[in-house]
Amino acid sequence: TRPLAVEEELEDIADIIAKAKKPLVVVGGGVRYSEAGEAVENFCQEFAIPFGESQGGKSACRSGHPYCLGGIGV
Fold it and tell me: What's the pLDDT tens digit per position in 57-70?
């Protein structure tokens, strides 16, 4: 089962992102296993937030996407 986000948590995260000077989304294995790559791409595109991929997140999003920074960490 996949728990749903709590409304208060979403509000807190939205506030943190809005105040961030240089936000970055890290795409991990959870994005890949949830098949949420397109949703992440759309989110990043809409809010102009770049994203990087962990080893587990490889192939979840298109590597040629304009907001994709490539791999992060080892």
Answer: 999 999 999 999 99
